């Protein structure tokens, strides 16, 4: 095999393994989003407690992104990703055993580390792919964001088909508790695949370089501009992925139940039923099995709408964004992204009293902008900082993911403000981006040449 073909095969393995790993780890990171419909009433959690859980997992998967990026550049993605996967196995499994808010909070903090897999994959792929192919490669890898929809689509299905008592006298639980058990088993298999199937001779572009050299780009304003852009297209995506199931259920659950011709009692008493918690919820569902079955069916539809109309475009279009950025330039792509997100954000945040399908349509446009925009932001990083992708990409990922904390906080403090906060954030980022573009295009003054008369020669 020629060296070129060997390198191409190794790059393909790195991209495939990192994308699969990122997809599963992202599903683990955001699994409470869909499971909350079942967890909240069973454990008797308040809205505030649930958002604290969401924030804890997001912070855990964000604050170490800078370090994970540098570690990947220094020690190689194969080692760092394997260790990260193995670390998340036990806390993911123990989610299936929790009985209180505090237990679930500890698990969320620990399994939330899975969110740092993004920095690992970005740095690992950037080290293996040439500059002219980094846009599409990083876009394909980033499509692993679709992991946010795995629980939304498969969770309700598994909950419905697996007996509530589980298997082996409860050793393998049923209901929502089965999901973290399945994820934990898949993580073990994934760790083995990454370790044994990825190239043993890894690439470590930062090995031997001083930390001061790696962090030197942080003094450039462009790094912070990229961070704000990534907050808009990714941090907001993370936050919305977590709250959308609850948003759909709380605001459009009754309308969806009516349009699906579900149980009349469920439709008539929807507001009272969704307010039930703890023992009252369990007792009501036991006494009304038809309502329970239709509620499960409604949960499937909520997961389907959130996944197909937002998570899918915001994830699966990332390779398209990478291809467009390679072909037409990332900055031009970002212009279109900002226009689309500002328009859809205005529709979603203004008090239109949108019906469920108008809301879903605007949400789809927002998701398209996020999917394309995530790729264009990360295409600009290796273009301007080719030797510090791990450090810069890690910091951008860290600050961007922290935006996933902003919207849940806004949601909790001011109900209904989620999309308004996103619109303001998008507008600020767009203004900064436009100001930077004007600065780049500003013409350089041409020095004026002063003509001096030569002395007259005799």
Question: Care to give the gist of this entry?
Answer:
By secondary structure, the chain is mainly alpha-helical. It is built from 21 helices and no strands. The chain is globular, with a radius of gyration of 24 Å.
Per the CATH scheme, the topology name is Growth Hormone, Chain: A
Order of helices and strands, N to C? HHHHHHHHHHHHHHHHHHHHH
Tell me the number of helical segments per DSSP (H or I, 4 or more residues long): 21
Tell me the number of strands. Answer: 0
Please identify which CATH superfamily we are dealing with: MFS general substrate transporter like domains
Q: What is the terminal separation in angstroms?
A: 79 Å
The profile of the biggest β sheet is: none
CATH top level class name? Mainly Alpha
Overall helicity: over 70%
**What does the radius of gyration come to?**
24 Å
Q: Into which percentage range does the β-strand content fall?
A: under 5%
């Amino acid at each position: 095999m020629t060296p070129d073909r060997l390198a191409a095969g190794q790059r393909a393995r790195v991209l495939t393994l990192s994308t699969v790993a990122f997809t599963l780890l992202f599903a683990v990171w955001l699994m409470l989003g869909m499971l909350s419909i079942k967890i909240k009433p069973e454990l008797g959690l308040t809205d505030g407690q649930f958002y604290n859980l969401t924030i804890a997992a997001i912070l855990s998967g964000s604050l170490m992104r800078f370090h994970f990026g540098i570690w990947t550049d220094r020690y190689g993605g194969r080692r760092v990703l394997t260790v990260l996967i193995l670390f998340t196995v036990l806390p993911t499994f123990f989610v299936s055993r929790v009985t209180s808010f505090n237990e679930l909070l500890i698990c969320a903090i620990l399994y939330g580390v899975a969110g740092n897999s993004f920095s690992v994959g970005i740095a690992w792929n950037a080290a293996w792919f040439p500059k002219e192919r980094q846009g599409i490669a990083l876009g394909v890898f980033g499509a692993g964001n679709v992991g946010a929809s795995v629980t939304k689509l498969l969770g309700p299905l598994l909950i419905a088909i697996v007996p509530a008592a589980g298997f082996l006298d409860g050793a393998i639980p049923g209901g929502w508790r089965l999901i973290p058990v399945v994820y934990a088993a898949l993580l073990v298999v994934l760790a083995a695949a990454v370790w044994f199937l990825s190239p043993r001779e890894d690439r470590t572009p930062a090995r031997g370089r001083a930390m001061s050299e790696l962090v030197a780009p942080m003094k450039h304003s462009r790094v912070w501009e990229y961070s704000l852009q990534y907050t808009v297209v990714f941090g907001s995506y993370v936050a919305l992925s977590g709250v959308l199931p609850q948003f759909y259920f709380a605001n459009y659950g009754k309308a969806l139940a009516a349009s699906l011709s579900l149980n009349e009692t469920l439709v008539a008493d929807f507001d009272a039923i969704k307010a039930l918690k703890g023992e009252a919820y369990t007792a009501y569902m036991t006494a009304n099995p038809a309502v329970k079955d239709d509620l499960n069916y409604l949960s499937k539809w909520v997961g389907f709408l959130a996944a197909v109309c937002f998570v899918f475009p915001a994830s699966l279009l990332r390779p398209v964004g990478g291809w467009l950025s390679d072909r037409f330039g990332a900055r031009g792509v970002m212009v279109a992204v900002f226009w689309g997100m500002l328009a859809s954000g205005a529709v979603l945040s203004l008090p239109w009293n949108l019906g469920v399908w108008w809301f879903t349509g605007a949400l789809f446009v927002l998701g398209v902008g996020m999917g394309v925009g995530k790729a264009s932001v990360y295409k600009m990083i290796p273009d301007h900082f080719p030797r510090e992708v791990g450090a810069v990409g890690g910091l951008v990922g860290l600050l961007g993911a922290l935006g996933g904390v902003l919207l849940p906080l806004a949601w909790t403090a001011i109900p209904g403000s989620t999309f308004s906060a996103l619109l303001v954030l998008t507008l600020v980022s767009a203004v900064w981006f436009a100001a930077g573009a004007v600065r780049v295009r500003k013409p350089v003054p041409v020095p004026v040449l002063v003509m001096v008369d030569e002395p007259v020669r005799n």
